[in-house]
Amino acid sequence: MGGDMTGKMLVPLVAQAGGKYGFEWLGASYSLSAGELPEYEKQMRMSGCYPFRTTPDEKEALEQDPQR
């Protein structure tokens, strides 16, 4: 399948203190509330990215073990 049909990038949305999520997307850093995320997740999906809500520990574990 070509890039038009499949996603191009996983975007980790990392849980932070105070119910916020931090992430980097399109060269910018964000820290948003859970209520603000759906619009950004929609934009990410429309651009071929996969938003993934996660914790700092889970993100680190995934970075340490690429097969996971």
Commentary on this structure:
- By secondary structure, the protein is α+β, with helices and mostly antiparallel strands.
- 28% of the residues lie in helices and 37% in strands.
- The chain has two helices and four strands, in the order E-E-E-H-E-H.
- It has helices spanning 37-46, 56-64, and strands at 9-15, 20-25, 28-33, 49-54.
- A four-stranded mixed beta sheet has the order 3-2-1-4.
**Strand arrangement, largest sheet?**
3-2-1-4
Q: What is the number of helical segments per DSSP (H or I, 4+ residues)?
A: 2
**What is the terminal separation in angstroms?**
23 Å
Flag low-confidence runs.
Answer: none
Could you say which structural class the secondary elements and strand pairing correspond to?
alpha+beta
Percentage of helical residues? Answer: 25-40%
Average predicted local confidence, pLDDT: 90
Describe the biggest sheet? Answer: 4 strands, mixed
Determine Rg (CA atoms, Å). 13 Å
> How much beta, percentage-wise?
35-45%
SSE arrangement, N to C = EEEHEH
- Could you state the oligomeric state of the chains shown? single chain
* Total beta-strand segments: 4
